[in-house]
Structure formats: structure tokens, C-alpha cells
Write a structure and sequence with these properties.
heterotrimer; B: 360 residues; mainly alpha; Four Helix Bundle (Hemerythrin (Met), subunit A); 2 domains; two-stranded antiparallel sheet; 2 strands; C: 647 residues; 26 helices
Chain lengths: 142, 360, 647
């Protein structure tokens, strides 16, 4: 019976880190960017705890605890800032904030149009029962 | 020169570690296909690709015969974590992505548990899944009540981001496997253990090599593998140990003394296990004043604490030990992080506070 | 303090110091007293020149062995410091003083002093007063440097220096468009000649096998040069002289140079700068003496120019123009003399011409000063009672110019005519040519006398008319202007008879103390010729007297009779118009050059200037304001870094 080698734990940590990195770079919603950053921190935590296990002391765990603490503070501040940004532009899109580009550069705009939203099919309605439908007025009695 | 360089790189990437490379490529394709875009690719392609990459990775890394609870739990938690992570970054709906993050946190907490960190597991679940994710969801609900917005349906530079991420991952994985990969050692250990399982002296004598030359090759490989494990003096000493044990093995083999041979083999196995535990580790510094509260200090020698399979045993009263070490070794950090929390709380309120009557 | 070697350096450097001093201190500090450094410096230079003159006289005379030129070891006073050395090229600031140089120095500095004194009075009240004296001092520095130089390179440098000062001084009133244009014309026309001069210098450089441009080396045994190369070199050198000394076809700048102030005309365009060409040809006598064909060319051009200028001067109404054409004509005489092998004659004529031409110009300046800057002779007349001193001195100068017997001009002109006749009668290869030249020169002498006295009579005889610009009342110039006139008049009258005809002091000094002149012969006295030239001179004066004093309407009647000829002469034979018509097609080439400069050269420079911009534009899109993009760039950089490390 062989235990799971250290390398495997480190691999998992690396994969989580990389996925979080891609999420941070690719997603445009500010909340999702932040969540991806948090996932990167999770990956690092896995690494640290794995090392702590394989060296036999608790230093890695203490470190991870501090990481979690600081991540909490960071989340609080980041959400406050995101809230302010949202208030200004009424959107959580990070691509709207481009004012710090070089003067003379055009802003990056989305070119591909979104597919049109499927029209909501209105649910069918029945005429209310018990009410006589309106008849057209009779104009001749012949 | 350049051609030789390219040829050797090609060989290294695609022949020696081909599974890694293909797993990475499949994973990159999966992420790229699944990232949100206005005209998305069919989700099936991404799913198949990601499944393929996980399978390839598993093929490379999973040991045959590891059907014990620990590996099974490990693999299931890690697959969950990876899939959750993939879900998080490719999901259009941000609320679903937040829930995927919760799944990731839960899985990695499972991993923490497997790594003998129960307090950390609980703390992470409480703080992350309990507080942070809930706060995120609150903000999402306040900001985007209608679900996915226009921004969520597009990605910024999906191709470059994928390439960057997976290139980084590839470098990391290759470096890790170079430094911490114990495959060679595993195969040697397997042979030693197979030799230990033999019944007769004759078979045991030939288990490590049919001829003298083969046996010599085996021991050379053994030493080389050990020396490649790191530069610390411990590992180098272990390599020297092999030679000493061989001095006992050879006459035992000549005399076909099965007890002595078994002893020698046990010693070989211990050496191999110790090396596996020490693989890729740095030389501990001798002069740092560290307490023993968080476990054996890194400047302690290996014999000073309990071991099992070459890996040290963690203290059973994990929380007590952790608490003791936090408030002695890391007291300053604790106090500072407390202050940090206070400041962050005040800061968050101060930033987000809106004076009544002011226009939003 | 006054030893010769030091004087050698003081002569050019004192005026240079004065020029720098006036340039820096003049506008604010010296102002109306800016003339003092100039006058003092030039006077001191004159004193040093006299010291040099005497010192050269002490040197042993060079020997000539039966016409052979001794290897140029005629002793002279020399001094040099190294300017630069590049490989085999070793260029020195070398000054040397021998006979020719000493004579030129004395002439230049003496007349320069007198003219500076005159100008102090003439330019009084002009806003550019300090600038004038700074430029005049600079000119004296360049001119003295020119005659003192002992190698061709330094000579060329000072040649350009006098050209520059001429430009600055002609265009002194540069706000007047005609003056600015005249300055440009002078500079550009002399430039044409300078190109040939430079080519000649290159050729001389090439012809010497340890390459050198020192006079001592170049004039050493000139028989060793290949004949055609030597002829080409001499022609090219002469072209420089043609430009600077206003010979045909490059004389057109000199009449227009009268736009400058009158002292400038006197100094530069009568006495000193225009004689630089004569100096050059005289200095290169050892070379010219060996190529008879080039000598003949020199003589022909000189004589032709003399005739042409005299014909034009017959009808000019502007007093200074008459004197300008007269200068061109007399320069032609000098070249004729040099072309006939009469070195001493040519240089002697240079010497005397300096005196009387400067005198005439200064007197004209005095007249202008009295007439409120009017110089058109038709607008004033009969000034001999109002401007007594000016009248007397002008008469002296005019008489000397005309060749009245016993005055200086007479002797010098006679020497030249005599040399031409000698060449004809001496069985020279081109003797027929020299005969023609002789006759032409004689006729030109008559014309000279005529137009000179025409100008004299129109200005000073007849009824007294003063133009309104002068306030209807003419007054004599202040003493600071009349004293130089008097001194020059004495020189014009007496300088000739003292030095040359009976004592041959001038020619023996010149020939004895200048290297390479061993072949030249001192002039002889030919009584028949003297009588002939006197008759011609008096004839010209008489005709002028008849036409302008006795029967005042004669001139107009003759002009109407010979309308065509008169118009031709009045319009300067349309030479300027011909040049303009010839040069306009050249504008196409200049257009090409201009386009090249504008588009290609400037284009390349602009392109280089654009390169940082383009490189910046290449990298600027990275800063597009998107945070994720920045993060991506960082991660990509990190990946590359890690890949490099992981190698």
C-alpha cells in the first residue's frame, strides 16, 4: 500500500491555480474574476497543506490559515469597491472601465453581436369562462 | 545546434512525457471550447475533451494497485475540484459559477482532510463557503437580478488566456515531475518488495538481477535515482548507505542465507522510502531557533519523530497543536491579521457607505 | 618688440583683435568711438609693415644665373605654426614676407589707415557704425593674411575671407534690396572664379610628388612639371584671379558693388581686394613664365577687359560707376602687364593705381557727402569753388589716372605699354598678338583720359548746381575727411616718379627680394613711347574739355547721332541680360538639387525622426485600459521567463 505521493497533491494544486488564472483573464464579470482569484488561492492552499503533511509539521497549515484570513479581508474590500463601480456604470462588466488607456487609442468595443434573445413565447391564455363573447351588432333583420 | 535543441525538446515533450503533453493540450482545448462566447460551440465537444484530458492525466499518474481508501478519496476529491473549477470558469450564469466555486471549496477541503488538516478544513468551509460565497451571491443578486448579462456571454481573449494558463500549467507540471516525481524510485521499490515476497533463497538471490551485471545495473540505477533526488546531504548520505547495505547483501547472497538477505532487503526498502519522502526537499537550516510546538522543527534530524512509510506522522490532536503553534511561533502574525481584519471591516464600510440623500 | 618675425604676426593679428573688440564692445560701449580700435590697429599694422619692408631690404638679394630661376631659396622672413597634421598632410599657418609681400603690405595698410580715417568722418551718424569698423578691421586682417600666407591653402582661406568681408561690406545697408542683391551677386560671381582656383590648387597638389602646397615647394624648379598640367593649373589659378579681380567675363559684380558705402568702394574695390588676383598671378610668375600660351591668354583677357570697361565708362552718368568701370579697366592693364612678362610693371601699376583710385573714390565720397548722397553727375555741377580741397585732390587723381606725364599713373602705364611693345618687337612667339594688344592698350589709354576728365568736368566745371537734397548749399567736408585726401593726392602725384623711372628702386626691390622673379626684367625708359602716350592722354583730355566745357551740347548731339552705339554703351553692352538669359536654364539643375535636398535628404532625416514614433505606435496598443489585458501580458511574460529558466 503506497500512499498518494506528494507529486499528485501538487499537481492538483497547480491545476486549480491554472484554472483560476484562466478564469481571471477570460471572464468579464467582476464577481467571477474575483471568484477565480479565490480559486487560485485555494490551489495554493492545497499545495501548502500537502507540503506540511509531507514534512511533518504544521507550518504549512498555519500559513494557509493566514491565507484564508487575508482572503476574507480582501473579499470584503473588493466587494465594496465592486459595489462602487457598479453604482457608476450600472453594470458589472469590467470592460467598461477603459479610461486609463493611452491617449489616442480607441476604446476596445465588442464587435460580435450577441444572438438575439429568443422571443419569449407568451404563454397561451384562455378567454375567461362565463363571459359571453362580444357579438357584432346586428345591422339587418332580414 | 538549433535543430538538435529542437529535436531534444520535441523528444522530451512528446515522447518521454507524451501523456502529460497530450493531457494539457486536451485540457486547453476543452477550456477554450467551453469559454462563453456569443456563438458557443456545442458543449459536447468541450465535455469530451475535458474527459479525455482527465483520463490521460490519470493514466500518467495513477499507480496500479492503489485501491485503498485514501487514493480513491483523493482521486474523487481532486476530480471534483478540477471539474468544479472548469465549471466555474466556463459557466455563463454567474450564480451557477458561484455555486461551482462552492463545490471547489468543498472538494479542496476534502483534500485538506486527507492531508491531516481537519481544523483547516472546517475553517475553510466556514469562512469560504459560508461567508465569502454568500457575500458574493448577495452582490450578484443586488447587481444582476436578471441572471447572465451581456458581459457574461463574452470572454476577453479566450485563446490567449487559455494558452497562457496552460503554458504556465505545463511548465509547473513538468518542473514538479522533474523534482518530485518518484516514478523511478517507485519502480525500484516495487522490485525490492517483489524480491522480499519471494520464498526461496535461490529466487531471492536472483530477484534483483539474473546475472551479476544486471544486478550491478540495478544498484547503479538505485544510486543514481537517489542522488537525483536532491542536493541535500541527507540524500547523498542515503546513496552512500546503499553501498554499505550491499556489503551485507553480497555475502548473504553468496551464502544463500535467506534471513540475512531478507534483512538486507528490508534495509534497502527503508532507504528507498526515506528517499521518496525526501525527494525535492531543501536542506534544512541548522541555526534557526524554532520551537517544537508546530511539530518537529525543520532543523531537527529525521530520527527525531515518528515515521511511517518514510513519511512523518502528524499529531493526532491537530487543533490543539495548531492553536499552540499559532499563539507561540506565529503570535505576531496573529495579532497583525486581527488588526487587518478590523481595518478591512472599517474600510469596506467606509468605501461602500452612501450618504443618505446623495445621488447614487 | 619690433623684430621682424613678431611684426609678421602683428600685421594680421592686430586688425583681427580690433575687429573682435569692436564686435563685442562696439554696440553698447564704444558706439561712436568704434573707429578708434580700427584706426589704431591698422596704423600699427602699417608701422609693422614698414618695419618688415625695411627688414626685407636688409636681406641678401637672390641671384639669377642667366635667366635660370634659382631654387626658391631667396631669403625671406618666415614664421609658422602647425595647423593640423593628417597623415602625409601637414598644414601650417605659415607667414612669410618677401619683396612682393612687403610692397603689398605697405600699400594695403597705408591706404587702409587713410580710408579708415576718412570713413570715421563719412559714416558719422550711421546706426551700423560699430559693425562697419568691425568688418573693415576684419577685412584688413584677411587681406594682410592673404599676402602673408606662404602656402596655397592659407592663401585660399584668406581669399575666401576677403570675399566674405566684401559681401558684408557691400551689403552694409542690407535693408536696401538692391544692396543685398549686389552683395549676393558679388559673392556668387567671385565664387565661380574660386571654383577654378580650388581646382588649380588641387592640380598643383597633385603635381608635387611629396604632396605639398607650400610656395617654397611648388615654385621649386617649375621646369619639372609636365607642360600641359602646368598650363591647366595656371589657367585655373587665373580663373580665380578673373573672378576676384573683375576681369571679363566675371567683372559684372564690381559696378553693382558700388551699392556699398564709398569708403568700402575705395578700400576694397579699388585698392586692395581686387588686386588680390593680380597678387596671385604675380606670385605664380615662376609657373606662368613657363607657359607662354597662358601668358598670352592673361594678356588678351586683360586687354579686352580694359577696352570693354573703358567703352562702358564713356557714357555712365553715375560718378561711382564711372570709377568702378575705370577700376575694371585698370585691372585689365595690370593683367596685361603681367601677361607681357612685366611683373614689375604690373605690380607698379597696382601700387600707383591704389593711390589714385582710392583718392578718386574718396573724393567722390566727399562730393556725395556734400551733395546729400546724390551721385548722378547730371544733377550737380560747377563745384570747384564750393569744394576746393575736394576739387584739387580729385584733379590730382584724375590726372594721374589719365596718364598725364610725370605723374604716377604715367610711369606705370608706360612700363606696361613698353613691355607689350617689347614682346612684339622682341620676336616672341605670339608677337602679332602683342602688337594688337599694344595698339588696343594705347587706344584704351586715350579713352581712359577721356572718360576720367568727362567725369571731372561734369562734376566740377560748368555752372554751379546743387541739388535740393543738399539744402541748396554745398559745404566742404570736415578735416578728418580732407586730410586723407590730401595725403593720397601727394602719393598719387609723387609716388611714381620717386620710386621707379630713374632709380628703379621699386623693380629692383621687387625682383631682388622675391623668389622666382629672377627672370623678370626691370622696365626700361622708352622716350618715343613716353611721347606717344602723353599725346594720347592730352588728346583725351582735350576732347573731354571740348565736349563738356567749351561746347556743352556736343555730348548730347553725338549721343543722338550715334544712338545705337550710345545705347549699347549705356546699357553696359547688355552683358548682365545675356548672363541672365544664359543662366535661367541652369535653374532646372538647381531645381533638381533643391528637390534632392528637400525630399531625399530632409526625407531621410524626417524618417529617422519618425522611427521612435513608429516604434511607440507599435507598442502603444498594449496600454488599452483593460485590466485583464495587462494581467494577460504579465502572465505571458512570466511564462516566457519560466520557459527560459526551465531550459
Amino acid at each position: 500500500m503506497t500512499p498518494v505521493p506528494l507529486l499528485h497533491y501538487l499537481t492538483v494544486g497547480a491545476i486549480l491555480f491554472a484554472l483560476g488564472l484562466i478564469g481571471f483573464l477570460a471572464r468579464r464579470n467582476m464577481i467571477l474574476m474575483f471568484l477565480s482569484a479565490e480559486m487560485m488561492l485555494q490551489g495554493v492552499g492545497v499545495n501548502l497543506v500537502a507540503f506540511a503533511r509531507f514534512r511533518g509539521n504544521l507550518q504549512g497549515q498555519a500559513f494557509t490559515l493566514f491565507i484564508v484570513t487575508v482572503a476574507a479581508c480582501e473579499a470584503a474590500i473588493a466587494l465594496a469597491l465592486i459595489l462602487i463601480l457598479y453604482r457608476t456604470k450600472r453594470s458589472l462588466d469590467v470592460s467598461l472601465w477603459q479610461e486609463l488607456r493611452e491617449p489616442g487609442q480607441d476604446p476596445t468595443v465588442d464587435e460580435e453581436p450577441l444572438p438575439p434573445e429568443p422571443k419569449e413565447v407568451p404563454s397561451p391564455t384562455l378567454t375567461p369562462s362565463g363571459v359571453e363573447p362580444l357579438q357584432p351588432k346586428e345591422t339587418s333583420h332580414v | 545546434m538549433l535543430v538538435a535543441d529542437l529535436a531534444s525538446t520535441f523528444h522530451y515533450l512528446f515522447v518521454a512525457n507524451g501523456l502529460y503533453t497530450f493531457a494539457l493540450c486536451a485540457g486547453a482545448a476543452a477550456v477554450y471550447l467551453l469559454l462563453p462566447r456569443p456563438n458557443p460551440y456545442p458543449a459536447l465537444w468541450g465535455a469530451v475533451s475535458s474527459g479525455l484530458s482527465l483520463v490521460l492525466l490519470g493514466w500518467q499518474m495513477v499507480r496500479p494497485g492503489s485501491l485503498a481508501p485514501e487514493p480513491i478519496l483523493f482521486y474523487s476529491f481532486s476530480v471534483l475540484a478540477i471539474l468544479g473549477g472548469g465549471f466555474l470558469i466556463t459557466q455563463r450564469n454567474p450564480a451557477r459559477a458561484a455555486l461551482a466555486f462552492a463545490l471547489v471549496v468543498l472538494s479542496s477541503c476534502g483534500l485538506f482532510l486527507l492531508l491531516a488538516a481537519p481544523f483547516l478544513m472546517a475553517a475553510t468551509i466556514i469562512i469560504y463557503a459560508g461567508a465569502i460565497i454568500v457575500t458574493f451571491l448577495f452582490v450578484l443578486m443586488l447587481a444582476q437580478q436578471e441572471g447572465p448579462s451581456d458581459a457574461d456571454q463574452r470572454s476577453r481573449e479566450p485563446l490567449l488566456a487559455t494558452i497562457a494558463g496552460f503554458a504556465l500549467l505545463g511548465v509547473l507540471l513538468f518542473t514538479l515531475s522533474e523534482n518530485f516525481g518518484t516514478d523511478n524510485l517507485r519502480s525500484l521499490l516495487d522490485r525490492i518488495q517483489a524480491a522480499q515476497a519471494k520464498e526461496t533463497a535461490e529466487e531471492m538471490a536472483r530477484a534483483l538481477g539474473d546475472s551479476d551485471r544486471e544486478e550491478q545495473l540495478f544498484f547503479d540505477g538505485f544510486e543514481k535515482t537517489i542522488r537525483a533526488g536532491g542536493r541535500s546531504s541527507e540524500i547523498q548520505n542515503l546513496a552512500g548507505e546503499v553501498f554499505n547495505v550491499r556489503l551485507r547483501w553480497n555475502p548473504a547472497k553468496q551464502a544463500r542465507d535467506i534471513e540475512k538477505m531478507r534483512t538486507a532487503l528490508a534495509e534497502f526498502e527503508a532507504i528507498a522510502l526515506q528517499t521518496a519522502a525526501l525527494f525535492g526537499q531543501l536542506e534544512p537550516r541548522g541555526h534557526w531557533p524554532l520551537s517544537h510546538f508546530s511539530g518537529p522543527a525543520s532543523n531537527q534530524t529525521r530520527d527525531a519523530f515518528r515515521r511511517e512509510n518514510g513519511v512523518p506522522r502528524m499529531p493526532a490532536e491537530n487543533t490543539a497543536y495548531l492553536g499552540r503553534s499559532l499563539f507561540t511561533d506565529y503570535l505576531l502574525a496573529i495579532e497583525l491579521s486581527g488588526t487587518l481584519l478590523l481595518v478591512a471591516m472599517i474600510g469596506a464600510i467606509a468605501i461602500a457607505y452612501r450618504r443618505p440623500g446623495r445621488a447614487p | 618688440m619690433f623684430e621682424p618675425a613678431v611684426c609678421l604676426w602683428l600685421v594680421p593679428l592686430l586688425p583681427l583683435a580690433a575687429s573682435v573688440l569692436i564686435a563685442f564692445l562696439g554696440p553698447k560701449i564704444l558706439r561712436q568711438h568704434s573707429h578708434w580700435p580700427c584706426i589704431l590697429a591698422v596704423a600699427a599694422s602699417c608701422a609693422c609693415s614698414i618695419v618688415l619692408f625695411l627688414a626685407v631690404r636688409e636681406l641678401p638679394i637672390s641671384e639669377s644665373h642667366g635667366g635660370e630661376t634659382v631654387a626658391a631659396t631667396t631669403p625671406s622672413i618666415e614664421s609658422h605654426i602647425t595647423w593640423f597634421q593628417a597623415g602625409a598632410v601637414d598644414v601650417k599657418y605659415g607667414l612669410h614676407a618677401d619683396g612682393l609681400t612687403a610692397i603689398m603690405l605697405v600699400t594695403v595698410t597705408f591706404i587702409g589707415t587713410l580710408i579708415a580715417l576718412f570713413a570715421a568722418g563719412y559714416m558719422h551718424g550711421d546706426p551700423g557704425y560699430p559693425r562697419f569698423f568691425a568688418e573693415v578691421s576684419l577685412f584688413i586682417f584677411s587681406m594682410t593674411g592673404l599676402v602673408l600666407a606662404n602656402n596655397f591653402l592659407l592663401l585660399y582661406a584668406f581669399w575666401e575671407g576677403v570675399g566674405l568681408c566684401s559681401y558684408l561690406l557691400i551689403g552694409f545697408w542690407f535693408t536696401k534690396p538692391s544692396a543685398a542683391a549686389a552683395a549676393r551677386k558679388a559673392f556668387l560671381v567671385t565664387r565661380l572664379g574660386d571654383v577654378g582656383f580650388l581646382l588649380g590648387i588641387f592640380l598643383l597638389w597633385h603635381m608635387n610628388s611629396p604632396h605639398s602646397l607650400d610656395f617654397a615647394v611648388v615654385f621649386n624648379h617649375p621646369e619639372r612639371y609636365e607642360h600641359w598640367l602646368l598650363a591647366a593649373a595656371c589657367l585655373l589659378l587665373f580663373s580665380g584671379a578673373v573672378g576676384k579681380s573683375a576681369q571679363f567675363p566675371l567683372y559684372v559684380w564690381l559696378p553693382d558693388a558700388m551699392e556699398g558705402p564709398t569708403p568700402v568702394s575705395a578700400l576694397i574695390h579699388a585698392a586692395t581686394m581686387v588686386t588680390a588676383g593680380v597678387y596671385l598671378v604675380a606670385r605664380c610668375t615662376p609657373l606662368f613664365a613657363l607657359v607662354q600660351g597662358v601668358e598670352v591668354v592673361v594678356a588678351i583677357i586683360g586687354c579686352f577687359t580694359a577696352l570693354l570697361a573703358a567703352l562702358i565708362a564713356l557714357t555712365q552718368n553715375d560718378l561711382k560707376r564711372v570709377l568702378a568701370y575705370s577700376t575694371v579697366s585698370q585691372l585689365g592693364y595690370m593683367f596685361l602687364g603681367l601677361g607681357c612678362g612685366a611683373i614689375a610693371g604690373g605690380v607698379f601699376h597696382l601700387f600707383t593705381h591704389a593711390f589714385f583710385k582710392a583718392l578718386l573714390f574718396l573724393a567722390a565720397g566727399s562730393v556725395m557727402h556734400a551733395m546729400g548722397n546724390i551721385i548722378d553727375m547730371r544733377r550737380f555741377g560747377g563745384l570747384r569753388h564750393a569744394l576746393k580741397i575736394t576739387h584739387a585732390t580729385f584733379l590730382c587723381g584724375a590726372a594721374a589716372l589719365a596718364g598725364v606725364p610725370l605723374l604716377s599713373g604715367f610711369w606705370s602705364k608706360d612700363e606696361i605699354l613698353d613691355a607689350a611693345f617689347e614682346r612684339y618687337s622682341g620676336g616672341h612667339a605670339y608677337s602679332i598678338v602683342y602688337l594688337v594688344l599694344f595698339v588696343t592698350a594705347l587706344a584704351t589709354a586715350g579713352l581712359t583720359a577721356f572718360y576720367t576728365f568727362r567725369a571731372y568736368f561734369m562734376t566740377f566745371w560748368g555752372e554751379e548746381r546743387v541739388p535740393p537734397e543738399a539744402g541748396n548749399h554745398a559745404h566742404e567736408s570736415p578735416p578728418i575727411m580732407t586730410i586723407p585726401l590730401i595725403v593720397l593726392a601727394i602719393g598719387a602725384v609723387a609716388a611714381g616718379i620717386i620710386v621707379e623711372p630713374f632709380t628703379h628702386a621699386f623693380s629692383s626691390y621687387l625682383i631682388g627680394h622675391t623668389s622666382g622673379f629672377g627672370r623678370a626684367e626691370p622696365g626700361t625708359l622708352n622716350p618715343v613711347l613716353m611721347i606717344l602716350s602723353s599725346l594720347v592722354a592730352f588728346g583725351g583730355i582735350g576732347v573731354a574739355w571740348w565736349m563738356y566745357v567749351r561746347e556743352p551740347g556736343t555730348a548730347t548731339r553725338l549721343a543722338n547721332r550715334f544712338r545705337g552705339a550710345y545705347q549699347l554703351s549705356l546699357n553696359k553692352f547688355h552683358v548682365d541680360e545675356i548672363y541672365e538669359a544664359l543662366l535661367i536654364p541652369m535653374a532646372a539643375v538647381t531645381g533638381l538639387c533643391r528637390a534632392f535636398d528637400l525630399y531625399i535628404v530632409d526625407g531621410i532625416v524626417d524618417l529617422i525622426g519618425q522611427v521612435p514614433r513608429l516604434v511607440g505606435a507599435l507598442f502603444r496598443p498594449v496600454q488599452n485600459g483593460l485590466v485583464q489585458f495587462y494581467a494577460l501580458a504579465m502572465i505571458l511574460g512570466l511564462v516566457v521567463f519560466l520557459l527560459a529558466l526551465a531550459r
